[in-house]
Specification:
Blueprint lengths: L5 E11 L2 E6 L2 E6 L15 E6 L8 E7 L5 E3 L4 H11 L11 E8 L2 E9 L2 E10 L1 E3 L2 E4 L5 H15 L3 E8 L6 E4 L5 H12 L3 E9 L4 E6 L5
Parallel strand pairs: 9-12, 11-13, 12-14
Antiparallel strand pairs: 1-2, 1-4, 2-3, 4-5, 5-6, 7-8, 8-9, 10-11, 14-15
Helix pairs in contact: 2-3
Protein name: Sugar fermentation stimulation protein homolog
Family: Belongs to the SfsA family.
GO molecular function, one term: DNA binding
Length: about 230
C-alpha cells in the first residue's frame, strides 16, 4: 500500500483521543490521529512524524501516518491501514491460510456487532477480524495497549461462529518491522488475553504478520509466531 505524499513534522503533544499537535516548519498545527490506542511508545515529544494532507470539510488538514523511533524504525500509527493491507495481501494470494476462499465482503454482521471481513469459497465461509498492533517490547508485538471491550466482543463473536461450524480467524498486523513474535498484552488487558486463548482453544485461528514500513509504502511481509 503506497502512502500519499508525506509531510515531515515533529510530534509535540496529544490533544485528545483523536488529535495531536505537531510542529510543521515554524508553525504548531493540529493533526488527526487515526488511532484510539494509548501509543505512549510512539507519541513522544520531539519524535519525527510524517503526515498526509487531507482535503474536504475537516477540523484538521493533516492525518498522522508514520512515527520515527530513535533507532530509525518507522512505525505506521494509522489503525485503518491493516484492513487495507489484509485486502491487498488476500487479493494477491499472499495469505496461504486463507487462499481457499474466493470472495470477500467487508464489515459484515456477526452476533450483536460486526467483524471486518467474511470470506467464502467452495468449502464454506470464514469470518476474519483484523487488529492493528503498534507496540513492540523486546521484539514481541503486543495487543492491546489499553483495555479493549470491543476487542473482547469480537473474540466472543468469533468463538460463537466457530461453535456454529464456521471457520474464524483473527489477524494481528504489527505495523512495524521489528517484531519477531506476537502475544496478547496481559498487563494491559488480562481479560482480552484470556478470551483470545479461549478462542484459540475453540478453533479460532490466530495469525500474526509484521510489516515493512518506508516513507513511500507499507507492506505486509511475513508471518511471525503467536505466543499464547
Amino acid at each position: 500500500m503506497r502512502w500519499p505524499p508525506l509531510i515531515p513534522g515533529v510530534f509535540l503533544r496529544r490533544l485528545n483521543r483523536f488529535a495531536v499537535e505537531v510542529r510543521l516548519g515554524r508553525r504548531r498545527v493540529p493533526a488527526h490521529l487515526p488511532n484510539s490506542g494509548r501509543l505512549r511508545e510512539l507519541l513522544v515529544p520531539g519524535y519525527p512524524i510524517w503526515m498526509a494532507r487531507r482535503e474536504g470539510r475537516r477540523r484538521t488538514r493533516y492525518d498522522l501516518q508514520v512515527v520515527g523511533l530513535p533507532d530509525g524504525t518507522l512505525v505506521s500509527a494509522d489503525a485503518r491501514v491493516p484492513n487495507s493491507l489484509f485486502r491487498e495481501a488476500w487479493e494477491r494470494g499472499e495469505l496461504p491460510p486463507l487462499q481457499a476462499y474466493t470472495a470477500l465482503e467487508a464489515e459484515v454482521p456477526l452476533g450483536e456487532g460486526r467483524v471486518d471481513f467474511r470470506l467464502s469459497g467452495p468449502e464454506g465461509a470464514a469470518y476474519v477480524e483484523v487488529k492493528s498492533v503498534t507496540l513492540v517490547e523486546d521484539g514481541v508485538g503486543l495487543f492491546p495497549d489499553a483495555p479493549t471491550a470491543r476487542g473482547r466482543r469480537h473474540m466472543a463473536a468469533l468463538m460463537e461462529a466457530r461453535a456454529d461450524g464456521v471457520q474464524a480467524f483473527v489477524l494481528f498486523v504489527v505495523q512495524r518491522p521489528d517484531a519477531r513474535a506476537f502475544r496478547p498484552h496481559d498487563q494491559a488487558d488480562p481479560e482480552f488475553g484470556r478470551i483470545l486463548r479461549a478462542a484459540a482453544a475453540h478453533g479460532v485461528q490466530i495469525l500474526a504478520y509484521r510489516c515493512d514500513v518506508s516513507l513511500e509504502e507499507i507492506r505486509l511481509t511475513d508471518p511471525i509466531p503467536v505466543l499464547l
